[in-house]
Amino acid sequence: MQHVADLPSTALGDRIQIKTMIQVKPRFQSFEEYLSYDDGTDNLYELFNGELIEVPPESGINVQIANRLFLVFALLIGTDRVRGHGLELEVRGEPRNRYPDLTIIREEHIQQLAKRNTLRLSMTPPLLVIEVVSPGELQRERDYIAKRSQYQDCGIPEYWIIDPDAQTVLVLELTGNTYDKVGSFSGQEQVRSPQFSELNLTATQIFESANQEES
After folding, report:
1. Widest CA span in the chain
2. CA torsion angle for 88, 98, 80, 61 (degrees, to 10)?
3. Do strands 102-104 and 128-132 pair parallel, antiparallel, or not at all (unpaired)?
4. In the 3-class helix/strand/coil scheme, how is the chain assigned residue by residue?
5. CB 52 within 8 A of CB 31
6. Which residues of the chain carry a pLDDT beneath 50?
7. pLDDT tens sequence across 60-94
8. CA 60, 65, 69 angle in degrees (round to 5)?
9. Which residues contact 123 (CB under 8 A, 6 or more apart)?
């Protein structure tokens, strides 16, 4: 049997490369198995058909809008209950997890998320999730159709879809098992939130920082 030390450097390099490729493409039989995995990086992954799909970085405009809303809600309810893009949400269907641009969690979640920033299906759903639509038809369908269906199925009471291209804020409220449209807000219209009636925010205020960046 040939030992590693006896292999030519090119062959040894090929073996190391193949082993590395195998290691970075694990397959998972369950969500619990995925949760126990750690690749030693801060990368975010969606679990799709048992395989990891790396989540790409958000656009600058999306980050600006999410940061503005983080500040608005933090002033309203405190920073501990406002979670950014790093919060992981277990959902049904494929992929098995999502990373909303902003999530408003419940008081009970603060302790539950102390060790891992993941909301499981076994936990009470968060109060509100917000997605900022990225450019492209596929991304629009993902936020308007796929995520809407998954968040509705999770029983999340309120879902906002913020569309920088259309300059609209669509607010949906869970009624029974289905999302109903509260309103689609634009310009100087006040965004109406069923759960946060004290919110004093217009669509223009949400988009103005992003619009200034584009101009």
Report:
1. 76
2. 130
3. antiparallel
4. CCCHHHCCHHHHHHHHHHHHHHHCCCECCCHHHHHCCCCCCCCCEEEECCEEEECCCCCHHHHHHHHHHHHHHHHHHCHHHEECCCCEEECCCCCCEECCCEEECCHHHHHHCCCCCEECCCCCCCCEEEEECCCCHHHHHHHHHHHHHHHHHHCCCEEEEEECCCCEEEEEEEECCEEEEEEEECCCCECCCCCCCCCCCEHHHHHHHHHHHHC
5. no
6. 1-5, 7, 9, 12, 16, 18-22, 215
7. 999 999 999 999 999 999 999 999 999 999 999 99
8. 145
9. 109, 112
